[in-house]
Amino acid sequence: MAVDICTDRPLYGGSISSTFPVRFQDVSNIRQVPDHQEAFVDPSRDESLIFELLDLKPDVNDSGSAVWFLQDLANEQDAQGFTLVEQSGVVEVPIGNVSVVVTTAIGKMGVSKARQGREAQNVVQVYLANLRLKNVGTDVLVVAYEPVLISPLSESAATVGAGLPAPAAQSGFLPMAEVFKLAVSNFKVNDWSLFGN
Questions:
Q1: Measuring CA to CA, which of 40, 63, 69, 70 is 20 to 30 A from 125?
Q2: Would you state the CATH architecture of domain 33-188?
Q3: What is the H or E stretch that residue 67 is in?
Q4: A single GO BP annotation from the record (predicted)?
Q5: What's this model's pTM, rounded to 2 decimal places?
Q6: Is the pLDDT of residue 82 over 80?
Q7: Where is pLDDT greater, at 10 or 46?
């Protein structure tokens, strides 16, 4: 049985780091990823983990920011049947010597792979954390995608199989909820100059 080995992973050239399983491969080795994103995927489970740096949205209040970004993500991906499953309150955590506001939200939605149509939509659970680095005017998103139901028409079905995916723990892997918590709780800024002056 496989066992998840987790390690500290460099992001944005090492300016940021986080901890998550080594089974997640860097997507930039396969295809172009925008400079403001770091994307990792476990193709054998069709799970992904994305880190994204965005300009701070000052008009979005702290308490609702994770939900706002999750709904924005659903709109961007033309998702079907978006449902908010859970949202956290505001938590302040230290990153280095800076206090950062963190909120999280979990949602379910139907999304299609890159160029596939709605008939090939998979149902995914999406975990999203918003870390508000107000000192450098940045909203950091940590987003984890976990398939709940794979469409037989999805390109994922060829690798993962259609229907309900095998539970992660049954395969010796950390459940995506745990991968997400690990990545968020171990998020570190190693070089603040990444954000400019």
A1: 63
A2: 3-Layer(aba) Sandwich (3.40)
A3: helix 65-76
A4: protein import into nucleus
A5: 0.92
A6: yes
A7: 10
- Coil, strand or helix at 122: strand
Q: What's the pLDDT at 104?
A: 97
The residue ranking higher by pLDDT, 158 or 5, is 5
pLDDT on residue 80: 86
Give me the half-sphere count of Cα atoms (radius 13 Å) on the Cβ side of residue 127.
Answer: 20
Ramachandran category for residue 184: left, alpha or beta (phi over 0 → left; psi -120 to 50 → alpha)? alpha
Q: Return the H-helix or E-strand segment holding 74.
A: helix 65-76
Give the type of residue at 94.
P
Q: 181, 34, 37: which is closest to 102 by C-alpha?
A: 181
pLDDT digits (tens, 9 = 90+) for 112-124: 766 667 676 777 8
Q: Give the type of residue at 77.
A: Q
Residue 51 buriedness (CB in 10 A; 0-12 / 13-18 / 19+) = buried
